[in-house]
Amino acid sequence: MSQLTGNRIRTTAGKLGLPHLAETITEFTRRADEAKMGYLDFLDLVLSEELAVRDDRRFRQGLRLSRLPHHKTLDEYDFSFQPDLDPRKVKDLATLSFVEDRANAALLGPPGVGKTHIAVALAVAACRAGYSIYFTTLDDMVRNLKTAEAAGRLVNKLGTYLRPSVLVVDEVGYQPLERAEANLVFQVISKRYEKGSVILTSNKTFSEWGQVFGDEVLATAILDRLLHHCEVVSINGNSYRLKNRLQTIERDADVA
Ligand code: ADP
Ligand code: MG
């Protein structure tokens, strides 16, 4: 490849928004020469590498904007610690067909069983697959919406929770809500209904949601929309947070 051609390809690639090609054209042509690559294989290599770089950049940017508390994956989840949880149920969710269907997923159970871990892992997988994601606790969402409402910016702020393809709402039920607050939650859930997925975690059963939302009618209206298309995963085991602590306490007791 002449220097002139190389320079022209770099300029054209830059104008076309193909920065990876602009940076690596010399390396690509060296590899093509070495492998005696045909034209189609060469073009295939260049385009697929450009796409991979672009996907990776979009994935990392998506994670940065998502406000996820961490980036744990399902590979890091020890299913043997929760024998009553069928791994297939969670792995089915990880295929993301519920996201494609704009349906919801609910992870229920007591503290420490890995509800947030699994919700985050599903969100990371969705982000990798190209979906936009956003993470919030229920309390943060309510607080932000209330502040925005008081400042006359509710519609604008609602957009934060309506735009992403996948909204993770963590910790439903930790704090009871007042009626006006529950109404803000209803607005988010009803506007997302059949438009985008919600992944929620809760330490409360659905029958306790009346207390959480301070109003049975509102709670029923929220549940009605959430549960119409929803995969529910209940995890009824021991807290992983206490695992090591309990082992230490038991060991110390044995020694004593
Ligand atoms: P929850 O949201 O149900 O209260 P978390 O998802 O926050 O629980 O889990 C608490 C901690 O324990 C996190 O650091 C999480 O990664 C870890 N954890 C929970 N369950 C498991 C598990 N089965 N295997 C590996 N780590 C787990
Ligand atoms: Mg949690």
UniProtKB/TrEMBL annotation:
<dbReference type="GO" id="GO:0005524">
    <property type="term" value="F:ATP binding"/>
</dbReference>
<protein>
    <submittedName>
        <fullName>IS21 family transposase ISChy4</fullName>
    </submittedName>
</protein>
<dbReference type="InterPro" id="IPR002611">
    <property type="entry name" value="IstB_ATP-bd"/>
</dbReference>
<dbReference type="InterPro" id="IPR047661">
    <property type="entry name" value="IstB"/>
</dbReference>
<dbReference type="GO" id="GO:0006260">
    <property type="term" value="P:DNA replication"/>
</dbReference>
<keyword id="KW-0547">Nucleotide-binding</keyword>
<comment type="similarity">
    <text>Belongs to the IS21/IS1162 putative ATP-binding protein family.</text>
</comment>
<dbReference type="Pfam" id="PF01695">
    <property type="entry name" value="IstB_IS21"/>
</dbReference>
<dbReference type="InterPro" id="IPR028350">
    <property type="entry name" value="DNAC/IstB-like"/>
</dbReference>
<keyword id="KW-0067">ATP-binding</keyword>
<dbReference type="InterPro" id="IPR003593">
    <property type="entry name" value="AAA+_ATPase"/>
</dbReference>
<dbReference type="InterPro" id="IPR027417">
    <property type="entry name" value="P-loop_NTPase"/>
</dbReference>
<feature type="domain" description="AAA+ ATPase">
    <location>
        <begin position="101"/>
        <end position="234"/>
    </location>
</feature>
